[in-house]
Amino acid sequence: MNGAVSDGAPAFRCSGLAKIYRTGETEVQALRGVDLVIPAGEILVLLGPSGSGKSTLLNIIGGLDRPSSGTLLYRDLDLTAMDDRELTRFRRADVGFIFQFYNLIPSLTAEENVRLVTDIAERPMNAAEALEMVGLADRSDHYPAQLSGGEQQRVAVARAIAKRPGVLLCDEPTGALDSRTGIRVLETLAEANRTLGTTVVLITHNIGIAAMAHRVFHFLDGRIARVEVNAAPIDPSGVSW
Amino acid sequence: MKALDLKLARDLWRMRGQVLAIALVLAAASATFILSLGVHRSLTDTRDAYYAESAFADIFADMTRAPRSITARVAEIPGVRRVEGSIRQYATLDLPEGRAPARALVNSLSTTERSLLNRLTLRAGRLPDAARPGEVVADEAFVAANGLALGARLDAVIYGRKQPLTIVGIGLAPDYIYSIAPGDLIPDNSRFGIFWMGEKALEAATDRTGAITRLALTLERGASEADVIRRVDALLAPYGGTGAYGRADHISHAFLDNELMQLEAMTRVIPPVFLIVSTFLVYIVLGRMIQTERSLIGLVKAFGYSDRAIGWHYLKFALAIALIATILGSLAGAWMGRGMTSLYAEYYRFPILRYHISPAVIVGAAALAAASAGLGALGGMRAAVRLSPAVAMAPPPPPVYRAGPIERLGKRAGLSVIGHMILRHIARWPARSAMTVFGVALSMGLLFATMQFVDSSRSMLDSYFFRAQRYDLAVTFIEPRGADAMHALAQIPGVLRVEPTRALPVKLRSGSRSERTAIEASASDARLSAHIDRDGRELTLPPAGLMLSRQLADQLGVTPAPRCQLHGLYGSKIGGRCSESDLISPAGDLPPAFFPVGEKSRVDGDRHGFGRAGSEIHLTPAEQPQLFLPRGGDKIKLRDVSAGLFPDILDIEGSRHGLLAGEPEPRVSKLRVAQPVSEREKRFISFAAIPPISHIRSIDIIVDG
Q: Nearest CB to A97: which of B11, B302, B400?
């Protein structure tokens, strides 16, 4: 269970996936039975209003959270049957995360932030190599406070791809960026998908980004309302913001 | 270095203020631990090695005078391994350059054979030559304090005779590691010295040819000290033996032992307080740190870091604090230990006293610091490990607040919104609030505990020097004197009042418990010295019987009784009421038991001819008359006057040693004259009014009621 796959076989298969959150005294049903197949090596976009269940699904398929019910397979591994230790191993080997607010550690330089992942990964690329891939080789010894928002997000991308993950899970990676830097980030994601064969699952509120995806899942009220298959995904540079 | 460790190092640097503050508290624990344990070990090891090397005796016995042949009889007592007899004699020294005279305790030293026990260690010079009677070895501290050197000459009055002495050697002995002049509160090396003189020379100087005044003996392994003491006492009784005693009652050993116990107590009491405070501080700081790094914890968990790795990361933060504390504490502990050891070297005379910290002490301190910080980190670590990555990355849900009784009270009190917030916050986290209160209380307690030392010392000095001691001069005689002595002292110009007191060394026994102490007897109308109780009230002595300090009463397990008997060793009984009081434990060597004088006390069953059975006698002893002088009265040349009047004055000393006023020299200079009565003169001193209860060495307290 490691490395990128691009053999066309499904990366994730889930059926009847449901999740109920209890926050204080309130109960929220975030997912209400999601059936979904994510083919390996594709770029997928999850669209939908806030609270429709996109992030919950991303957390569950990334092994950060467990479903309340339903089944979830990553290739032939049953994620719902894994204990905490196995889920940790799964995340360490196969999953790269990118968040809206970059989540870099402020006391570490760009290179050290990448090393945070390469220190524990099984077959990582060199941190400098990962920064080279996102075009930040010359900013490797800069602290997050010395980088622009776009640069910080590209460091986050470098950190996510440095372990050569099978799947990149991106929660609104361009949500806090302007169009130019946003497109630059999308290009690095597309390049990782192309060169490493990494499956990219991307949550966004920006409908324009859907044009670069192989598939688009529309979420509503914890369910997938509609699936679009895009026969000819466009290059990120052509995405309209 | 791993990226997560880099983060740790930078976090430590970023939070250096808090880290250093906690490390300093923890370092205080380590320093005290290293200081007290290190000094304790150094002192114990040095003492044990020195005792073994110089054959420190197990039992000591003093007597007025016994033939030297008594040693052979003592050696026959089962359990006795070695016996050695010697002469000890107080002498007065005339110091050069017009300084006030000093006192010396002169010990005899065999010049023909090597000492078996309490061997003298020569630091410089040589032993006295048998052919030159004036040669002495002086103790190192006295020589140093008076700026003397080998070859120095002093005039001494030994046993009433003036004799020139030459210091030919400087030495130390295990029975004088700590030495203090009788009646002194603190050792004064410049005014009291230990001398060793050739045996024959001292015999001649004290009219004790072929006689001894002290025995020292060692025991076979497993021998009973109490049995041997009983037999030695019986053997020495006819020779004015004052009671044999073991090491525990030997003044030098007892002081040293007491110091070691204090160090031990310091190890047990002070470090735990600092350790608890630092555990609490680590708990608070790490708890807050983990709260602020919630999303970061989620992030690294998302990257695949295990719970154990996260927990270890935060534990390392606490251990780093412990490491800093151990380094700082070790340095401070070693520095203070060295200082304390050199302070000890001033009071305790060892051939060599070096501060040595064993690695085990440092490891122990490090382990304590690590355990304390680790314990503080446990709560935070558990919280960090428990966080699920998805939950960690979401903002924490708002805490649940409920209106409780405190809240209702606040409402009734008409608190502002901020007031409500404060109350709710306290009520929402009761454990945390309680911990904070506990922590603050503990620090206040620490503050009070340390500040009270100053206050209680001041209060003790105040009650001892200003309230209890009202006299200006105390004159101590070698032998008890009668009313004539008081009358003679009262005649000295400037003397306003003279009062007698007497102190008798005794062994008090109650059931199986016994304590060596002294009974102080004073007149019922005494005004020059007072007995102050714990509440600062002045106590009057009961009309008859014995008053004990609460401490002594507790040690003996005695409770006040309507009647009690003081049962003397030779069958004499002193009846009366036995009472106890909350008397302040007197400072120095003041006796904690008091006996009224001038009252009719019964002495029964006397078989020694100092009173008829059932007779009533009137006690007017005057072993230590206390004098009250008018302002400026201390300037009178009491020494010249009194030396002419009393050849047997042991000591004249002023009260209020200038300790409180911070005077460099005592307001009343200590004048010491030791001109003991010779055997011939003794016969002319009236003993008529003084019962020889000084011969009672052991008193049983039998509680009747």
A: B302
